Amino acid sequence: MASLAEIRARLAAQENTNQNNGPRTQSDNAIYPHWNISEGATATVRFLGDSDTNNPYFWAERQVIKLPFNGVKGDPNVKQIVVQVPCVEMYGDNCPVLAEVRPWYKDDTLKDLASKYWKKRTYLYQGFVRANPMGDDQTPTNPIRRFVISPQIQTVIKASLMDPELEELPTDYQRGLDFNIKKTSKGGYADYSTSNWARKESPLTEAELAAIEAHGLFNLADFLPKKPSEAELRIIKEMFEASVDGRPYDNDKFGAYYRPYGLEAPAGTSNAASTSSVPPKVVDYEPSHGAHSRPPVDDTPPFETDEPVKVPESTSSDKAQDILAMIRARQSK
Prior knowledge:
By secondary structure, the protein is of the alpha+beta class. It has helices at 4-20, 96-101, 111-117, 151-161, 206-215, 230-245, 251-254, 317-332; strands spanning 42-48, 60-69, 81-86, 120-131, 145-149, 179-182, 184-186, 189-191, 196-197. The longest helix has 17 residues, at 4-20.
């Protein structure tokens, strides 16, 4: 992992670039659901570095795109669903969805629609929970937990790292700092903007060091969505177009690639079918890659769904085509 000075240089360079350019439950309880703490409570955590020494940070950025659909084709009982797919900008590639959506922001009539399809970011961390206000949360056998951090908390973390009074990486085993996740509310929504680093350094305990020795650190990249193939990118683009059209999700067409949790793979595919009996409502990204898929993780916390996705009422096929035609005509100008 990079030094504190190198992290600061990278963050500063990213800031300059930006200014210039304008749930599935895992049985091991590895994810710590800090969003479930009570309002006014504080969870104290100690972040650790990534096992991947090529990662210059102690977090990994996750980017997904939410595709809302007017139900599932052939199933009148399901009215609205949202399927999440990976955004390949996460891997430094060009995203076919964002390539189409970006120009929409230039048109005031399309900005809301553009925001609906824009990528959503979360940040994966790992570490120990040192003060846990949730009495019903059970520490797993491996006490090294994973954290899914919202952009709001990430902003606090990054700003603090740029503080010149910070002399050592917060993940240092001897001179590191705890991080306090504080939950308040603003405008009816959870607010974490008062979260902060502890003022005093503290070493890891003997028990924490023993846990690292026994279990090792996670490779955070292992918990990012699988990078889509060319064929999967084409499917993502087709799903996006179907979503904008207002059409229902077509499991026969898309289910072998990306499908809602709780919906079985289409007959005749070699992919493992979901065995959940939960009906698909607002659902998580699920890669359909059989034995090659990553293990399911509870990495879709409610801070991305506090504001429910509003899916327009079903429109006629002609009207949906008119909407797409208008969008693409404006894009080509």
